[in-house]
Every structure is written in structure tokens, then in C-alpha cells.
Design brief:
Layout (H helix, E strand, L loop, with lengths): L28 E3 L11 E3 L3 H14 L2 H7 L2 H14 L2 H10 L7
Antiparallel strand pairs: 1-2
Helix pairs in contact: 1-3
């Protein structure tokens, strides 16, 4: 019997090449597609830090690269990283911090 593949296999492909590729809104309400927000809230006011952190956690954890680029705002990722890194799974946190070392210095 073969082992199941790791949940994190290929996760680095979901991370953009640059934080400049993140074009999500800095304010207002974001409606996530059912493929990302399939349980619980689907609309998030990114002006509210708690809702934004919840949404960013969700998009980073389960979103495709196109979702990450479409829904996340680079400025918010930079500013929120000290809190956000506590919410996302460690393997994803490592991938993001290896790709974007400036996040660690935030």
C-alpha cells in the first residue's frame, strides 16, 4: 500500500514569484469563490483586520495561485505577516518566507 502524497506537495507553485504580483484590493468587501470559501464566510471586508486575516489565511491555505494573486494585497501581506504567519500552517509559512525573505524582516 502506497502512502498518500503530502498535502503540501506542490504548494510552492501556488505562491507568486513576487509580492508585486498580488493585486487584491486594499479595502472593501471581497467575495471569494466557492472553491476557496466552501464552508463558513464567503464575503470579507478587508478593511477590517480580523476579517482580512481570516480571508488571507484561507486564500493562502487553499487558494490556487490565481486566487492568491487576485485576492491578496501586497501591502497587507507585508504589514500583516507577523500575525498571519501564526495562522497559516508551518509548511506554507516556510515556503512563503523562503520565497519572500523580506517578510521575515517585517
Amino acid at each position: 500500500m502506497s502512502a498518500l502524497p503530502s498535502w503540501w506537495e506542490g504548494a510552492e507553485k501556488r505562491v507568486p514569484e513576487s509580492l508585486d504580483d498580488l493585486h487584491g484590493p486594499a479595502e472593501g468587501v471581497v467575495d471569494l469563490p466557492i472553491e476557496v470559501a466552501w464552508s463558513g464566510l464567503t464575503s470579507f471586508d478587508v478593511s477590517d483586520p480580523r476579517l482580512r486575516l481570516s480571508m488571507y489565511h484561507l486564500v493562502i491555505a487553499v487558494g490556487r495561485r490565481v486566487d492568491v494573486e487576485r485576492f491578496l494585497c501586497a501591502e497587507h501581506v507585508r504589514n500583516d505577516w507577523p500575525l498571519l504567519r501564526r495562522l497559516i500552517p508551518r509548511p506554507l509559512c516556510r515556503i512563503w518566507e523562503e520565497r519572500f525573505p523580506t517578510l521575515v524582516q517585517s
